[in-house]
Amino acid sequence: MNTSEKIVSNINRLHESLQEEVLDFTYFLMQKLEKSELKSFSQAQESSMEKLWGNDEDEVWNDVPVR
Fold first, then answer.
1. Which stretches within the chain are classed as H helix?
2. DSSP character for 1?
3. When you count CB atoms within 10 A of the terminal residue's CB, does the N or C end of the chain come out lower?
4. How far apart are CA 7 and CA 26, in angstroms?
């Protein structure tokens, strides 16, 4: 039995209200993963753009407020 099957088997043994809690927790984990992926993407973008952003001609943009 693989992990997914074990999870389903255990969840099926829970009361409906507890199954809803498990569902909520899975939503939380998916949001956490999405945030992590976005952070990784942002860091990758910053490193790839560093040569363009980190030059004397663009110093004036360093003081622009960020929303």
1. 3-12, 16-53
2. -
3. C
4. 12
